[in-house]
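Lactate dehydrogenase (Cellulomonas uda), 364 aa
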Amino acid sequence: MDVAVVGATGDVGRQICTQLVERRVLPPTSRLQLVGRPDGRSSRATYGLAADLVDAYDEHAPLLDVALDPADVVADVVVVAAGRTAGTRPGESVDRHALAADNAQVFATYADALARHGSGREVVVVVSNPVELGVALLGDALGRHRVIGMGAWLDTLRFRREVAASIGVRRHRVGGFAVGQHGDDLVPLWSTVRIAGLDVAERRAEVARVRGPRTLATYADEIGAAKRALSTAAVQDLAEAFRLVDTWPPDVRLAARPWMTQQSGAKTAAGTASATIDLVETVLDGRDTVVAGQVLLDGEVTLAGAHVHGVLGVPVVLGPEGWTQVLLPALADDEHERLAAVARRITAAVAPWTERGSDEEVTR
Ligand SMILES: NC(=O)c1ccc[n+]([C@@H]2O[C@H](COP(=O)([O-])OP(=O)(O)OC[C@H]3O[C@@H](n4cnc5c(N)ncnc54)[C@H](O)[C@@H]3O)[C@@H](O)[C@H]2O)c1
């Protein structure tokens, strides 16, 4: 099985390539295709990255190949990590609309190239932001089941880690999902949290203790307040800003910590790459596994009495041919309400770049 990484020399793309090789996800007989742009620095750096990876991992590296023309991308799994990023400088806000305007062309280019020249079977993992727009454009072009965005899986892993830290266990003992839109519009599904080794009563008591008497009705305000507090704290002392994050409930930390990391200039490349590789491994593995991801829905989910026909982060079954089933359990009222609002906001955000049109037409 072969993997292509589009945007291989970017901060995230480079981490994905390195981890794919270092974690031996691909055997030496497989091919890792590093995809760059024909113009600019990335074309030269793509060849350099291939040489550096062989230098480091010659004993077990897969075959390494460079592609600079979208028409030459060939793989069983294509990871799209190319494009502009935002919010990496102190005080810089993430304007998802502006980011969409920039990255829509990148998504459209590879959607078109894979539709024309691909095998018709490749599975695409979208990393670039806005991940929902990437899933919409690539899903429309290639078939929606073959395209998954990794933002909800990263948010899910972060949610599990924050809950685990508050309870005092390791992440692998915590289950549960964070869904919705990647970024501030994520939806932590507290009702799905499970903790290995605890019975139902014990788990409920632990969740109530670490969550407190809050609901998702105030979540957006809490995230806004957290960012303001961090902006002030970070001016004085970045260590103090990260210490402040630790004083908040798990779901606020879930949104605030990556935001602070991005603002620190460090970016979130390692965590993003690791979550991406989970999805790539799942597809290559050949067995169906439940993950969370942004997918293009066609009525599989009903929120506020309306079927969702658009992109939304949800738990899905992922396998060798892409995602097959949505596994969204019955939600608590506050979760349902927030997820319905988020679905509408994603649809509105994606509409200018797709042919699906207005909110009402998409979610009916
Ligand atoms: N989904 C997530 O959880 C998540 C997390 C972190 C970053 N991201 C996103 O990943 C993307 C990349 O982030 P980064 O920090 O690596 O950015 P970066 O600026 O370091 O790298 C972007 C790379 O994309 C390349 N590129 C741009 N247009 C291209 C094209 N048409 N074809 C091939 N390559 C092209 C550039 O040459 C560069 O190497 C951004 O959109 C960012 O928002 C997503």
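The chain has two domains: 3-149, 150-364. Residues 358-364 have pLDDT under 50 and may be disordered. ok done for today
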